[in-house]
TrEMBL record, chains A, B:
Organism, scientific name: Acetatifactor muris
Designated name of the protein: 3-oxoacyl-[acyl-carrier-protein] synthase 3
CDD domains according to UniProt: KAS_III
Residue ranges constituting the Beta-ketoacyl-[acyl-carrier-protein] synthase III N-terminal domain according to the UniProt record: 100-172
Keywords of this entry: Acyltransferase, Transferase
GO biological processes: fatty acid biosynthetic process; secondary metabolite biosynthetic process
Length: 321, 321
């Protein structure tokens, strides 16, 4: 649809005007690797507000400048209202700014960039605050070592603004697919309308834990991801060598198995799994923010954001920072 | 931002190509009014699939024609993955169609129309399936009569497609605000990251029920809604008399108190609360679908979709059907 006209060119003129990140205050150590978990009294709202505050500061803007607050998170803070309303209460009380959630689980941040850049391109908004982050620790099963030792609680935020055609920043290409053969490979079956909190018994409480079938996910990815990535690169008209930074979702240690199979050898993509583990929706923006802060991404650089999410949903986005 | 150029004209050329609706199979009677609740073995996915099937049929399209599946629902079916991935599994398994959730609680459908019409205007998608619906019955507190006797389980869906400038269909004006002074006036405090399912005890289980502070909501609405509506009409450059159909969120019996105060006397807006109660995110699209089916809305008619949602979020959208 968009591909013809967007080949190698910026299709939607937007700019990441500022980014921020925050880690939970509690620390656990698993085999020499640190994982971050919320301390008693600390909530994801604290981390989200910290990350958003830094993003606004870097953008040189205040909350009152924002046209919309978007929470791009995988899990709800409360069953009702949406997460963005609770962030609004914390950071924008008394302002009329609309608040909205956009959710594709782990890749919610990439989806939100895709969606909100269209709203900016359509003239609906000009400045948007996007926040990601999850309380992974709320549903981890200590008996499932693979996932229990993998996740951290963290948050990240960005200020996305309309850019001029001459600024060199924007989105060249975005694609998203859902392969629901994998809908139950990563899930928390309980806690929603299908199996309400009230239905929890001693017998079924495993259903309320995070459950990841690592091998099945790997198999589905091995079968479908290489073709997807080739197709995206071809449609975008971009070669791997032109990309200055590849930020994949920090899903697990399997990153070093999967990425080379997709034509990105070790060293050509950001892998912060040893440092932070998987931070669910915060993984991509957190790693992007850190890489920018380290000076490894500069204005105008071609950046690839990609990842797999529960669903199974895959995202692929090429942007000039 | 968009207002100048959009005054009284279509700003985003989209069309509701088909709509469908579905009610839960169980029936309860409260003081002569029927409420619909899921029967044993029935889930919201059944209702969503029924509504979406009808919408696709009316549009003369198949699922394979869709570019994106959007769940515009207030509550999660599971904590992970997102609702749209579960709908995808039911209706689009084996297809690559992306699946995504957009959530502003009760007005999620209006927000999703707003967002997806921008994605269509930006050339990102051309045909989108939007589904709304919630399992209100999963969290109703039998002790809180006001809400227990108000809600029904239902679903509604639409196929939103790109339209040509000559077709006369599209969105003229859309505005959304969040007034988070009311963030805790309508909520389910438990079940998410702030108060996980695992934290439920006999003492705190009220926190996992739906909790609505009707009087506080009414007060906030009385104070802020009239000005909001006036501002929207002025910005849109549209007079009330030009609007052929007003579809408000079917929040409660207070509709007949609030709407006249907003300048819409009884009889000028659709009130189906006596028939169905409040169906959360399904209320607006269900009433819209029914009104179209009754022949009260015809192609080219100016339709106002509006409502308040937990958050407190308000939406106001003018579209030509």
């Amino acid at each position: 649809m968009e591909n013809g006209q967007m080949k190698r060119q910026i299709g939607r003129y937007v700019k990441l005007a500022g980014m921020g990140r925050a880690l939970a205050g509690g620390r656990l150590n698993f085999g020499g690797e640190t994982r971050y978990r919320l301390r008693a009294g600390e909530t994801l709202l604290d981390l989200a507000a910290e990350a958003a505050g830094k993003a606004l500061e870097e953008a040189g803007m205040g909350m009152e400048d924002m046209d919309c607050i978007v929470c791009a998170m995988a899990t709800p803070l409360q069953a009702i209202p949406c997460n963005a309303a609770l962030v609004h209460e914390r950071m924008a009380k008394g302002m009329n700014i609309p608040a909205m959630d956009i959710n594709t689980t782990c890749t919610s941040f990439i989806s939100a960039l895709d969606v909100m850049s269209c709203m900016i391109a359509a003239g609906r908004y000009e400045k948007v605050l996007i926040l990601s982050g999850d309380t992974a620790s709320a549903a981890l099963n200590p008996q499932q070592k693979e996932s229990y030792e993998l996740f951290s609680d963290g948050a990240a935020a960005c200020v996305l603004v309309k850019a001029g055609p001459g600024e060199g920043s924007g989105i060249l290409y975005a694609r998203q697919c859902t392969w629901s053969e994998g809908a139950h490979d990563t899930e928390i079956r309980g806690g929603g309308g299908l199996l309400p909190a009230f239905s929890m018994t001693e017998k079924n409480q495993e259903e309320y834990y995070f459950d990841m079938k690592g091998i099945q996910i790997l198999r589905l990815c091995a079968r479908k991801l290489p073709g997807f990535v080739e197709e995206c690169l071809r449609e975008a008209g971009v070669a791997r060598e032109e990309i200055q930074a590849v930020i994949p979702h920090q899903a697990s240690k399997a990153l070093d198995v999967i990425m080379p199979r997709l034509g990105f050898p070790k060293g050509t993509y950001i892998n912060r799994v040893p440092a932070y583990g998987n931070m669910v929706s915060a993984s991509v923006p957190f790693a992007l923010c850190e890489t920018i802060q380290e000076g490894r991404i500069r204005r105008g650089d071609l950046v690839l954001l990609m990842g797999t999410a529960a669903g199974l949903t895959v995202n692929f986005m090429l942007m000039r920072y």
